[in-house]
Amino acid sequence: MRIGTLKTDYAADEALFDTGLQKCLLALALAGAVLLPFLASPYWLFLACLCAINVASATGLNILTGYTGLVSLGQAAFMSVGAYTVAVLEIHLGTPFLLNLLAGGLTTALVGIAVGIPSLRVKGLYLAIATIAASVVLHFIFSHWALTGGVQGLSMPPARFFGVTMDQPFQLYWMIMPVTMLMVLGAANLFRTRVGRAFIAIRDRDISAEVLGIPLLRYKLMSFAVSSCYAGLAGGLWAYFFRVVTPESFPLVNSIFYLAAIIVGGMGTILGGILGAIFMTMVPEVLKFGAGLVTPFYPDALALLAPVRTIVFGALIVGFLIFEPQGLAEIWRRIRRFFHLWPFKT
Amino acid sequence: MTGAATDVALSVEGVSLSFGGVKALTDVSFAVRKGLITAVIGPNGAGKTSLFNTISGFYRPQSGDIAFEGRSLSGSAPPERAKLGLARTFQNIALFRGMTVLDNIKLGRHAHMRTGLLDALVYHGRARREEIALRAEIEERVIDFLEIQHIRNAPVATLPYGLRKRVELARALAMRPRLLLLDEPVAGMNREETEDMARFILDVKEEWGVTILMVEHDMGMVMDISDHVVVLNFGQVIAEGAPAEVQMNPAVIAAYLGAGELGRRLRSPEAA
Ligand SMILES: Nc1ncnc2c1ncn2[C@@H]1O[C@H](COP(=O)(O)OP(=O)(O)OP(=O)(O)O)[C@@H](O)[C@H]1O
Ligand SMILES: [Mg+2]
């Protein structure tokens, strides 16, 4: 029985998971993540990996857009920087995949900083347009540069880890899932410290942030760096997952996908990035599954799927904007609050 | 002029500021003495907030200089001034609405913390130690002092006006300021809230030894707690001195004559 929380110890109060319920759920989720590869079919493992990659990227965008208030439509382009870096290193140097991923993240962080420079002057829509412009420039570079294979792009060998070739969802899962989990944990940690608080302060009110001693440009660029580093890492994972990187692998619509993911999930909450990315990745699959179910009665279902899918997708996003602007994370919080005080208060 | 004296916390010398054709400040000079409460008063639009914004570093004066503890501030941006020990509150409260009271107050310590990006991502180790020490300090020094234990986890947006003002003061105090600028700390407060706030400000001065520069329209409070009063009118200093002197100054009374309610309050401070 728990009646609210009474805390005495500051260390416990500052902990990331402070209640028993949270710890239990976390342990369950971890156990599920470890067991999944042994239980699920390659198809579901494929989806799990895709979800994880999207969670990593959406979490990065959430740091920039949800927490710092800087709207970006460049997340997919940033992912392409990471993907190409990893592919080039894997093809030409054959260095260990962890090193390649790291290099992908750092290279993308540098590109992100460059793209973020206008953010001191321009905001909102104008900044979003600047990030689109950057995406176009990156697309141009990748489709014309010999190193990145021009419009053909690059095909790369699979990663190897102690002699194991990682080319099946089962092996890739053990690369993608841990990296994503560490990234999400890092993001959660960030917002327990002064760096994360400074990001939120910038989002909520530039002027008083400065009076508190927060140099705006420095922190905005830091946010761009972290966010694009996350995109680069996610892009690197993506490259190992699909092993073909072309200029068309990361179209602008993918950037919109990530923006939609954090809106649907909940801007400015870690859980929001996770839930939103999983939701956006799984909705098409669920629709496909539903179409499969009705095919016996209605044989054209699969042919109808493509247009319906787009409509349902759009409708979901609009629905969230109108009815649940705080996103899935807020729904989850309400459920938790209900059980938190149950049965004393409902 | 006492500009070079060691007991001066802040000296404003010959500061002029204009926005296009509007002269917000004209050749403003005065000194804020260490450890005392200096009040800046004046009718609406006299330039008080503009003066604060110039001291904070938001506005660059066309001429003149502002020195903090003998060191010129010209050329330093607001964050650098914060690091030197300059803290302030705003006339229309500038708290971070999306955050809890505790997080708002924690932000006050930002400039004095060391956690970098990598420490933050890892958290365990340096960042954690710093966060726990910060929490303890804020709880013991600031939250207890201002009696806001009961709202520490409340989102700022849910608080009534008077409490928000107090949280903003808490955030400024978390900065461990050497000079505290308060822009209308009791504006819009009822009698009881005003008295509480006046007591806190006096305690800050006496227990923390912080120098205070405040803008306030509540003449009762100005007369009660300030040690020195500077009067601005149309961007110019028209009088300064001890509260009782200023109150009798014919130029000050004339400036306030048009100001109705304020003029009356100025002449009978007990009314407030
Ligand atoms: N950013 C600005 N741009 C243009 N004019 C400004 C600006 N800020 C202030 N002013 C003008 O400068 C003058 C002084 O304004 P200020 O806000 O400093 O007055 P105040 O003494 O704080 O008044 P109040 O008691 O109403 O708060 C006013 O005429 C105002 O219109
Ligand atoms: Mg003002």
Topology record:
The complex is a heterodimer of chains A (346) and B (272).
Chain A: H1 10-13, H2 20-39, H3 42-67, H4 75-92, H5 97-116, H6 124-144, E1 154-155, E2 159-161, E3 164-166, H7 169-190, H8 194-204, H9 206-211, H10 216-242, E4 244-245, H11 252-265, H12 270-294, H13 301-323, H14 328-341
Antiparallel strand pairs in A: 1-4, 2-3
Chain B: E1 8-19, E2 22-33, E3 37-41, H1 48-56, E4 63-68, E5 71-72, H2 78-84, E6 86-89, H3 101-108, H4 117-122, H5 126-143, H6 161-174, E7 179-183, H7 191-208, E8 211-215, H8 219-225, E9 228-233, E10 236-241, H9 243-248, H10 250-257, H11 261-267
Parallel strand pairs in B: 3-8, 3-9, 6-7, 7-8
Antiparallel strand pairs in B: 1-2, 1-4, 4-5, 9-10
Helix pairs in contact in B: 3-6, 5-6, 10-11
The structure holds adenosine-5'-triphosphate and magnesium ion.
Structure commentary:
- The complex is a heterodimer of chains A (346) and B (272).
- Chain A has 346 residues and is mainly alpha-helical.
- Chain A is built from 14 helices and 4 strands.
- Chain A has one domain (36-341): ABC transporter involved in vitamin B12 uptake, BtuC, CATH 1.10.3470.
- Chain A has helices at 10-13, 20-39, 42-67, 75-92, 97-116, 124-144, 169-190, 194-204, 206-211, 216-242, 252-265, 270-294, 301-323, 328-341; strands at residues 154-155, 159-161, 164-166, 244-245.
- In chain A, the strands form 2 sheets. Chain A has a two-stranded antiparallel sheet with strand order 1-4. Chain A has a two-stranded antiparallel ribbon with strand order 2-3.
- In chain A, β2 and β3 form a beta hairpin.
- In chain A, α4 packs across α10 (216-242).
- With 272 residues, chain B is an alpha/beta fold.
- In chain B, 40% of the residues lie in helices and 23% in strands.
- In chain B, the strands form 2 sheets. Chain B has a 6-stranded mixed β-sheet with strand order 6-7-8-3-9-10, sandwiched between helices. Chain B has a 4-stranded antiparallel β-sheet with strand order 2-1-4-5, covered by helices on one side.
- The two termini of chain B are 33 Å apart.
- The A-B interface holds A 10-11, 13-14, 186-187, 189-190, 192-198, 200-201, 203-205, 207-215, 222, 225-226, 268 and B 56, 58, 77-80, 82-83, 87-88, 90, 94-99, 103, 106-113, 115-117, 119-123, 127-128, 130-132, 135-136, 139, 171, 175.
- The complex binds adenosine-5'-triphosphate and magnesium ion (MG).
- Adenosine-5'-triphosphate (ATP) binds at residues 19, 22, 24, 42, 44-50, 91 of chain B.
